[in-house]
Design goal:
The chain contains 12 helices and 10 strands. The chain is of the alpha/beta class. It holds the Pfam family NTP_transf_3.
């Protein structure tokens, strides 16, 4: 089972008529094409995906008018033998994922075109856990992120056992697991809509998590029971996996980390506390 390959969905779309600030600064149309350490963001992600034996095919989700613009960045990787296809995005991220899944009953891993610090080890760990469950979320702890850089991530989910940061990658294993995705299909900002959160996760579960009365593993057990699924966490030791390129601050930090991996001489950045 551990050798079973997965399909990877890469979210690379942007809203029509909205130019990402990093893209505007770099003079490119899409955030996915913003250069970092000499290559567009999406090429660093594709480098990892196409060099992994655990990936069967890659589906890049883009708005139709952006596909012709971004596709040349994918051409370098097609000769490696892993099929790479483009799929239309939707205004709702979950609808975009479901559209790329196309009703297929197989394991999918979902990530983003700005997840430039993704590693083959991190991908393989996620895949192995996904194949033993119905779905996964990937996380690392506050301390591990701060050990990489104290400004690497500012948003954490606090549980009884630790504070956790999302690592910008999740997995769904087959049609049964899509039940968990259904709760997000209404659109809008899910985590800011208390009514939708209560309907999805249950009021008591939210109270337990909000008051830090429950650990992450126990919290996921309760959520799994609510959905009738086996949803497992993948807790990374590498805190850099929680740092994606979201804004100028995380771009600078990601560039430094990525540069270290590539043998580039980039000094550790000092980030002002007020930089977003």
């Amino acid at each position: 089972m551990s050798q079973t390959p997965v399909t990877v969905i890469v979210l690379a779309a942007q809203r029509t008529g909205v130019t990402n600030p990093l893209a505007a600064r770099a003079g490119v149309s899409h955030k996915a094409l913003v250069p970092i350490c000499g290559r567009p963001l999406i090429e660093h992600v594709m480098e990892v995906l196409t060099s992994s034996a655990g990936v069967s095919d890659i589906r890049v989700v883009l708005e139709p008018e952006g596909q012709q613009i971004v596709d040349p960045a994918l051409e370098t990787f097609r000769p490696r033998g892993i099929p790479i296809t483009l799929h239309n995005s939707d205004a709702n991220i979950v609808e975009s994922v479901l559209g790329a899944i196309q009703g297929e009953d197989r394991p999918f891993i979902v990530t983003t075109a700005d997840n430039v610090l993704l590693t083959k080890q991190g991908l393989d760990q996620a895949r192995t856990t996904l194949l033993q469950s119905d779905g996964i979320i990937t996380l690392t702890t506050r301390e591990r992120v701060w050990a990489v850089h104290p400004q690497g991530q500012r948003g954490f989910y606090d549980f009884k056992d630790a504070g956790y940061a999302s690592c910008n990658l999740f997995g769904l294993n087959g049609q049964k697991s899509l039940r968990a995705a259904e709760v997000f299909r209404e659109g809008g900002q899910f985590m800011s809509n208390k009514g939708r959160m209560i309907r999805a996760f249950g009021l008591f579960n939210i109270i337990l998590m909000g008051l830090k009365l429950i650990s992450l593993p126990r919290g996921l057990q309760r959520i799994s029971k609510r959905f009738g699924l086996d949803i497992r966490p993948v807790i990374y030791e590498d805190g850099s996996l929680a740092i994606d390129v979201d804004n100028e601050r995380t771009f600078i930090i990601a560039e430094w980390i990525l540069g270290q991996r590539l043998g580039m001489d980039i000094p550790k950045p000092e980030i002002p506390a007020d930089m977003k």
